[in-house]
Amino acid sequence: MLLILCVDLDDDLGRKTAFDTPVVGRDSVESAAVALATADPEDSDVNVCFQGTHLYDSIDDESVEVAVVTGTAKADVSANRKVGAEVDTVLASLSTREDVRAVVVTDGAQDESVLPVIRSRVPIDSVRRVVVRQAQDLESMYYTFKQVLADPETRGTILIPLGILLLIYPISIAAEIVGLPGSTLGVVSALLGLYVLFRGLGLEDTIDETIERIRVGLFSGRIQLVTYVVAAALIAVGTVGGIEAAETRVGVDPAATGLVAAFVYGAVQWVAAAGIVAALGRITDEYLAGGFRWRYLNAPFYVAAISVVLHGLSAFFLSLPFAGLSYLALTLTTGTFIGLASTLAFAVAEQRYPQSRDRELTG
Question: Residues near 11 by Cβ (< 8 Å), separated by ≥ 6?
Fold first, then answer.
């Protein structure tokens, strides 16, 4: 048996006429459609009801029934539940032993949101969407736009840049009135560009995760947060020192090799200090958390070894008075020795004095 279900999700039929729903039967559905058309000729659900009767009249090779089911005025979850309850009522009223299949008739995408509810009760053969020819897809477009604006993530992505764009002109006018520099427009445009770039690259998630880690670090007593801030400050100082050294070198030797060597020579000691401070903070947190391993102590020694090598190389390329081949050989040897010595020393320490984690893995 084929059941033609005319869906009125926002209950225009119940609110505008005296008909109780669900409406079952061809004559009853036609009478309901006429009543709704009389009450509101512009209501698109009138077309749905007449389409249901049209399908009923056009099918003559099997038993068929037509019914109108409605939701609520809010057209939300409660409307879906009401439609489901009315479909149950319609199915219970059918006196047939045949398997029932459904053809759902709607007037747009909004009413079709109830399809999963209907499908959970009766198999759906097809869906017929009825729209006025002069307004093809108008309701669907409205519903899609409404759904986009209802989604917080999509709303923020679309409306925030649009709002900033609309504010650029009045902000520039206000800046001229109060005597602010003309760069105000550029600042606003830069902020908009940064926002779009962050949204496009998905960096907002990274920023949220970073803020969450900082918050956890503040309230869990992690020294690593402090050492990272100190390390960032040391790197900033080292960068300034490297730039100053490179600027000094420009007047002597503008070659790219000399400028890079001058930058490294001026920054290496500060960056090395930053790496050692950050490594010590991480080691301290691992020890306090019970996850300390001897090999973690290699990190500050490796940083020191690399900095010694870079210092020797940069000094050699700058042809400093003390930086001949002997000095270069000494720094390369010293850096290698520091790295090898720390690796061997802490490897032996792990074998002789295993930590709790090592005991769990081996025991």
Answer: 21, 70, 71, 72, 73, 79, 82
C-alpha to C-alpha distance for 298 and 30, rounded to whole angstroms: 85
**Structural domain count of the chain:** 3
Whole-angstrom Cα distance, residue 94 to residue 25? Answer: 10
Q: What's the token pair of residue 23?
A: 């409406």
User: Are 358 and 217 contained in the same domain?
Assistant: yes
Please give the share of the chain, as a percent, with pLDDT higher than 70.
78
Q: What distance, in Å, lies between the first and last C-alpha atoms of the chain?
A: 70
Residue 16 sits in the same domain as residue 124: yes
Instruction: Give the structural domain span for 173.
Output: 151-201
Query: Residues 202-241: pLDDT tens digits?
Result: 666 777 777 777 777 666 667 888 888 899 999 999 999 9
Q: What is the mean pLDDT of residues 14-43?
A: 92
What is the token pair recorded at 197? 């770039």
CA dist 199 and 193 (Å) reads 10
Domain boundary among 119, 142, 165: 142
- Inform me whether the pLDDT recorded for 353 exceeds 50: yes
pTM: 0.46
Nearest-Å Rg of the Cα atoms of the chain is: 38
